[in-house]
Amino acid sequence: MARFLLGAIAFCLLAISANARVQGQGQDFEIHGHVYCDPCRLQFKTNLSYPLDAMQLKIECKNRDNKTTTFTSETKSRPDGYFVVKVPGDHEEDICEAILTPNKHPQCNEIMATRDRDQVSLADNAGVVGNVRYTNDLFYMTKDADNRCEAIYESLWDDVSEQDY
Ligand SMILES: *[C@@H]1O[C@H](CO)[C@@H](O)[C@H](O)[C@H]1NC(C)=O
Ligand SMILES: *[C@@H]1O[C@H](CO)[C@@H](O)[C@H](O)[C@H]1NC(C)=O
């Protein structure tokens, strides 16, 4: 019985490591992320941020050294702001980015210089298990801040004051 159990455990371990290897070959990476509107022009998520549907994103991989584009793709965010893009192959030599493109949203269409893109590493040796990579949240801003942002600015100011004094 003990021998059988050991055999079964060894078999499982083999199966797991084989599976890890297959995953590790990175035939298909997936980039996941969220697109939000920031109506307070703070460049981070607040309780007034809301997800943006049908926002067009560009995925771009470029060679680190000579900046040659090795992969491009486009996708749209879902109603909950979520997006998923499949990127075939290992991109160890590349820098891959998810980038927001100009949109026609009636309120929320200003691109934020710093929060319109994020880099991910699509390499097996990135020290991340599995083939899913998450970007930071990406934001568009409204031209004018929402009136309700006042309360948020105040609470931020309170936090800062408490820390500094
Ligand atoms: C850029 O570098 C990659 C990797 O070294 C190489 O395969 C590719 O041919 C290079 N492209 C150009 C245009 O030099
Ligand atoms: C959002 O956060 C602010 C500041 O923390 C708070 O005053 C406000 O009541 C919150 N609004 C909602 C809708 O939760």
TrEMBL record:
- Which keywords has UniProt assigned to this entry? Disulfide bond, Signal
Extent of the signal sequence:
1-20
Instruction: Tell me where on the tree of life, at the top rank, the source sits.
Output: Eukaryota
What is the similarity comment for this entry? Belongs to the Ole e I family.
Indicate what this protein is called per its UniProt record: Uncharacterized protein
